């Protein structure tokens, strides 16, 4: 901006004369803040104006001053209260304080109730979540145990030292099917059921190994299990494995008529 | 506040009286002006000009508002303006002569054109726009003359 031209335009005089619109004033004030030269010029203009008008004053009559200050004094209490409240105004103050306290109490109660409700529902949600969490943990444990079991079973079924003996259904129960995993050197026997009939409470299945034509007890089991179940140890020499139905607890010698499945050991 | 009144009431009444041209009404307005100053003193911003300028603008606006009100235009018709102007400068009021400088003496030293704008603005209460309209002068000319007059007055009043 050309400061000289701006000054020469007489706008600062118009500003000092109070003849600008609000927008023009704002503009001038903005420029004043930017250019110190304008401030200096304006100060000179204002000073000239002040001196001129101070020299052209008209003294008001004394009554005017008295009346003015009487008016100001009368307005003082509500208009320009700077000091603190005086003692005589203490009653309204306490009334205000009491009203304020009650208002605060009501608001606080409402908020307390509101928060209590929220807390309550939060607590319910939390209980639900904890229960859910426990269920998930249990499921996880179950799955994990099951996985462990399967891994263990897999080690056995994949171990070439274990000989798998498939026992097929006899005419008594053509649909039945079960397998024995037998480690001849460690004598370990594991049983896995593919399909066996449900038994009554009084009866149990009994696994037999036939060694040199003689049945040897390999342990009892119930029909309903998954995976492998460890049975009694069977020494080497077994040629055949078979399952019969016996009374609960098993017997010393098999009831051959109830034989369910049977299978021969296939070497190698 | 009392200091402001003692110091500036005469200058402000001079401004108001030249616009209003009626002694009692001008004094009434002066009272309103000081009440306004009292109410708004908090909003005075020294970065936007001198305190006197701020008060002067309140006084001028208050007086000009009054001239535009119905009450004023009625009473105006009943009086002869020329009489009132001279009345203001007459013995009812005491025109102050601060520092021994007679205002008229100072104004006489201004070139005619410049004295005209100063006289009409400060002593007769015209705005620049009113001068331009009434005396058929371009507003720019009025402004320029005002500017030159203010510069000249600066010298005459020995303001540096």
Blueprint of the fold:
The complex is a heterodimer of chains A (268) and B (160).
Chain A: H1 3-8, H2 11-16, H3 22-34, H4 36-54, H5 62-79, H6 90-158, E1 162-169, E2 177-183, E3 189-195, E4 203-211, E5 214-221, E6 228-231, E7 238-247, E8 261-264
Antiparallel strand pairs in A: 1-2, 1-8, 2-3, 3-6, 4-5, 4-7, 7-8
Helix pairs in contact in A: 3-4
Chain B: H1 2-20, H2 23-40, H3 51-68, H4 70-78, H5 81-88, H6 103-108, H7 112-123, H8 128-134, H9 139-156
Describe what you observe in this structure:
The complex is a heterodimer of chains A (268) and B (160). By secondary structure, chain A is of the alpha+beta class. Chain A folds into three domains: 3-57, no CATH class; 92-158; 162-264, Immunoglobulin-like (Sandwich). Chain A has helices at 3-8, 11-16, 22-34, 36-54, 62-79, 90-158, and strands spanning 162-169, 177-183, 189-195, 203-211, 214-221, 228-231, 238-247, 261-264. Chain B is mainly alpha-helical and 160 residues long. Residues 76-100 of chain B have low confidence and may be disordered. The chains are: A alpha+beta (268), B mainly alpha (160). The interface between A and B is large, with 43 and 57 residues.
Distance between the termini of chain B: 29 Å
Q: Give the integer mean of the pLDDT values of chain B.
A: 76
Count of β-strands of chain B: 0
Percent in helix of chain B: over 70%
Could you list the spans of chain A in which at least 5 consecutive residues all have pLDDT below 50? Answer: 79-85
Distance between the termini of chain A: 108 Å
